Write a sequence for this structure.
């Protein structure tokens, strides 16, 4: 559905994209994960057709974006970071306007607006002016406006920035439903839990380059990132530590805490607890540190994913 | 483009302040100034030169002030993210600018019409005899002023800059162009500068119709219409070029 090959873009002397490539199948949700300034929004802007590239190829549903931008644009729905609405108009009038730009017949458009407002839990407030909406409600209308023409591809650029948990969960449910219905979604975020929950495959982007991409399981396997369980004990004697050493080589003791490392901590957890019991150690607290994207990102780049 | 125009019209009519500024304020000005200067002798038809000057000068200046705000709406759309969404849609980019020109023209023609009808009903200005000439002049003034509005928007970086810059330029043009005081009472050097303002050509067009009784096909009248259209075209072309260079830099 989406083929991106060696995409490059510079702003003056700054190289925003350094030849990124990825392919996305129909019905797939692809997460673009990276810190601020990594190149996520530039990628989305190029895919949206509003920013020209310096090089590379980009095809959407077989159409070359450079040669046939209007056809490509008509197949794409874009949810930008900015909430672009006319605040003096009602949500309904805003949606009517945005939908009309995609040549959706008026009667069909009215039905789509009602369906979208229902889906996003805004049906009762559709005639209110957008300026009276909360940030979360505006974000939801922002998503509705991208779906009115029933696009084949949905580009979402950090759609949950600065919103309440209720709206965030609703947006997650909508994205999951769209993905299950066969819509192709590109979702940029720097929230790991979002990418883990929503995306079939994840591309990790930093400094304008995709460092790695694949399913979460594949990334975990290919990058051999260790997980750990941190167990706090009432007391750890030297004898008990020796007993542990005989059975488990990969651990680290910090006072009365032991960090047990494993490639699959979920499977090994029971064996570790039994081992501690055998050594007569009294467990006070267990903290699982499963491999996640933050862990992987730190492992790959040496940087924290989120800005401090 | 019709959808853009319809949306902008809805926004304009929904904003009471814009409607009051665009229609009520000019009527207040015309009432005040026409009450003072309205009895000055004018044409053989009986139109008072004072009244014609007040209607002409006020009309062009108020239209300029209104359409500058509409052009500035482009910067609002850029700052608040609507422009980005418009560019993501399959709408050709130049339609966005032309949409602003069309809505500004519609509002300008409506303003000019309301002001002339008011002057006719209250002060007896003979509008009915010159309907066709007035329509042609209104369209030329509206096009020129609308192009000025989008031109100012295309050279500005923010809505605030549009407001400051347009107010300054409009008041200078109104001062030297005959919107505030008639050009013929100005010193020679000011009269020679007047031709560089939009107001001058608009006001002279009104004089041709109401005071000199020049018919629609008369060269003096048509020359003003052509100059207004030419200034409009020039500003429009520059605005289109700058729009691509400045406003479309949205990422």
């Amino acid at each position: 559905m989406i083929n991106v090959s060696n995409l490059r873009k510079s702003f003056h002397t700054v190289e925003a994209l350094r030849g990124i490539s990825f392919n996305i199948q129909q019905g797939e949700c692809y997460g673009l994960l990276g810190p601020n300034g990594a190149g996520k929004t530039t990628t989305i802007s190029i895919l949206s057709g509003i920013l020209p590239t310096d090089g590379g190829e980009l095809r959407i549903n077989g159409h070359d974006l450079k040669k046939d931008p209007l056809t490509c644009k008509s197949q794409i729905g874009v949810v930008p970071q900015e909430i672009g609405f006319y605040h003096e108009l009602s949500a309904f009038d805003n949606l009517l306007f945005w939908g009309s730009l995609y040549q959706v017949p008026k009667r069909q458009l009215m039905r789509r607006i009602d369906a979208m407002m229902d889906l996003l839990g805004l049906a009762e407030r559709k005639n209110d002016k957008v300026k009276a909406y909360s940030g979360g409600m505006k974000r939801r209308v922002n998503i509705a406006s991208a779906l009115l023409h029933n696009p084949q591809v949905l580009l979402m650029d950090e759609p949950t920035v600065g919103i309440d948990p209720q709206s965030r969960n609703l947006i997650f449910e909508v994205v999951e439903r769209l993905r299950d219905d066969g819509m192709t979604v590109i979702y940029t975020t720097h929230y790991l839990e979002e990418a883990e929950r929503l995306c079939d495959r994840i591309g990790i982007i930093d400094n304008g380059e995709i460092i790695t991409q694949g399913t979460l399981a594949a990334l975990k396997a290919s990058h051999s990132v260790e997980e750990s369980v941190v167990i706090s004990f009432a007391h750890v004697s030297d004898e008990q530590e020796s007993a542990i050493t005989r059975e488990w080589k990969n651990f680290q003791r910090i006072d009365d805490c032991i960090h047990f490392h494993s490639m699959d901590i979920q499977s090994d957890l029971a064996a570790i607890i039994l081992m501690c019991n055998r050594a007569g150690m009294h467990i006070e607290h267990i903290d699982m540190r499963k491999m996640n994207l933050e862990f992987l990102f730190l492992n790959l780049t040496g940087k924290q994913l989120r800005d401090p | 483009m019709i959808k853009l125009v319809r949306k902008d019209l809805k926004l304009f009519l929904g904003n009471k302040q814009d409607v009051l500024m665009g229609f009520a304020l000019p009527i207040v000005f015309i009432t005040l100034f026409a009450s003072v200067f309205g009895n000055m002798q004018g044409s053989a038809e009986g139109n008072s030169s004072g009244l014609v000057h007040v209607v002409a000068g006020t009309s062009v200046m108020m239209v300029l002030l209104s359409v500058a705000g509409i052009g500035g709406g482009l910067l609002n759309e850029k700052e608040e993210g609507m422009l980005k969404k418009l560019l993501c849609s399959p709408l050709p980019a130049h339609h966005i600018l032309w949409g602003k020109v069309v809505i500004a023209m519609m509002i300008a023609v409506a303003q000019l019409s309301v002001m002339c009808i008011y002057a006719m009903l209250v002060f007896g200005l003979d509008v009915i005899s010159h309907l066709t000439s007035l329509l042609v002049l209104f369209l030329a003034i509206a096009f020129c002023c609308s192009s000025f509005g989008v031109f100012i928007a295309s050279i500005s970086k923010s809505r605030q800059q549009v407001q400051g810059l347009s107010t300054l330029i409009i008041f200078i043009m109104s001062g030297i162009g005959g919107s505030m005081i008639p050009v013929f009472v100005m010193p020679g050097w000011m009269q020679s500068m007047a031709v560089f303002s939009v107001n001058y050509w608009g006001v002279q067009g009104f004089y041709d119709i109401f005071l000199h009784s020049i018919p629609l096909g008369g060269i003096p009248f048509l020359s003003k219409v052509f100059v207004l259209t030419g200034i409009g075209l020039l500003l429009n072309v520059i605005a289109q070029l700058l729009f691509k260079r400045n406003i479309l830099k949205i990422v």
About this structure: The longest helix of chain B spans residues 49-79. The CA atoms of residues 45 and 131 of chain B lie 15 Å apart. Chain B has a mean pLDDT of 85. Chain B touches chain A at residues 3, 7, 10-11, 14-15, 77, 80-92, 250-251 (CB under 8 Å).
